[in-house]
Amino acid sequence: MGHRRHSSPHRGSLAYLPRCRAKSMEARIRAWPKVNSDEPKLLAHAGFKAGCVQIVNIDDREKTPNHGKQLVSLGTVIATPPILIIGIRGYSIDPRGRHAEFDYHADNLPKYISRFIKTKENSLDNSEKLLKRVKEIYAIIAVTPKNAGLSQKKPYIFEVSVKGGNVKKQFTFLQGLLGKEVKIDQVFEVGTTVDAAAITKGKGWEGPITRWGVKRKQHKSRKSVREVGSLGPISPQYVMYTVPRAGQRGFHQRIEYNKRIMLMDNTENSKFKINPDGGFKHFGNVNGDFVIVRGSVPGTYNRLIKLRSQIRKVPSKINKPNVLQVVI
Questions:
Q1: Higher model confidence: residue 17 or residue 155?
Q2: Are strands 70-79 and 289-294 parallel, antiparallel or unpaired?
Q3: How do residues 29-74 score in pLDDT, each as one tens digit?
């Protein structure tokens, strides 16, 4: 039997498996931060990626060499039209998991939203009776791409956790917002750090060199150069999942943590010029509310970006950044 030569261990992380195409254009958020306040609040908002700019601001990070100096960094512009609170959902929790107890929807919803609501139960009395066994309250929200200037009319409908206070307080809080629009400044403030969840750019079919970072084989060692040296041992008689193989790369669901909101404004009264001449490439002009977060976020332009309250390393205080200029 011929000698089997192994390539170097691949650098790609096995934490994200399977590396297949996302099932939906909308990323799911499965974990929510804890809130110690007694006042209920929404923990997420949503927007659409418009483009990238450069931000010039005074570095306010203490104990850094550039503290107090001008700092130029990349920023991502996210158009954030108001979200519409269309319903309330209550979950009970037992050893077998979470179970939806009730859905309470707003009356007189727009037709382009109400057509996607399947449940027929909409009794306030029934919802309040079931509130005794409910452990978690979620807001059912809708965000429409057309409100951000995009061509898509179909809204994205998903759940957003409500934390703070007890379940009854959370239910009452959402009752006051039912059927109303919530702007980005009602959920977050400038200087806060958020987590961005989205579907990444799709790259199509890629080989193991690009997909997993496997080392190329030596010259003349085999007929192929950009293939894996070995698919594994003789026994067991199958290829293990840890072997780097070719396949889909990109269009995966990802969450990037700790993205600081550097600017939150409206294009009508902003002192900064956000839109380049002719608009952002593949997006157009941003009209209405927008935020600029430091760094990049997953996904291509026009893609839905969910902004969740920071879940890791929450700072004790929030500093408002001093933005001097936005370079388009």
A1: 155
A2: antiparallel
A3: 999 999 988 999 999 999 999 999 999 999 998 889 999 999 999 9
Q: How many angstroms separate the CA atoms of 211 and 206, rounded?
A: 6
3-state secondary structure the chain: CCCCCCCCCCCCCCCCCCCCCCCCCCCCCCCCCCCCCCCCEECEEEEEEEEEEEEEEECCCCCCCCCCCEEEEEEEEEECCCEEEEEEEEEEEECCEEEEEEEEECCCCCHHHHCCCCCCCCCHHHHHHHHHHCCEEEEEEEECHHHHCCCCCCCEEEEEEEECCCHHHHHHHHHHHCCCEECHHHCCCCCCEEEEEEECCEEEEECHHHHHCCCCCCCCCCCCCCCCCCCCCCCCCCCCCCCCCCEEEECCEEEEEEEEEEEEEECCCCCCCCCCCCCECCCECCCCEEEEEECCCCCCCCCEEEEEECCCCCCCCCCCCEEEEEEC
Please tell me whether the overall predicted TM-score, pTM, comes out greater than 0.90 for this model. yes
CA distances from residue 79 to 36, 66, 254 in whole angstroms, order as listed: 30, 30, 20
The average confidence (pLDDT) of the chain is: 92
User: Residue 85 forms beta bridges with which residues?
Assistant: 141
**How many CB atoms lie under 10 A from the CB of residue 195?**
21
**How do residues 276-287 score in pLDDT, each as one tens digit?**
999 999 999 999
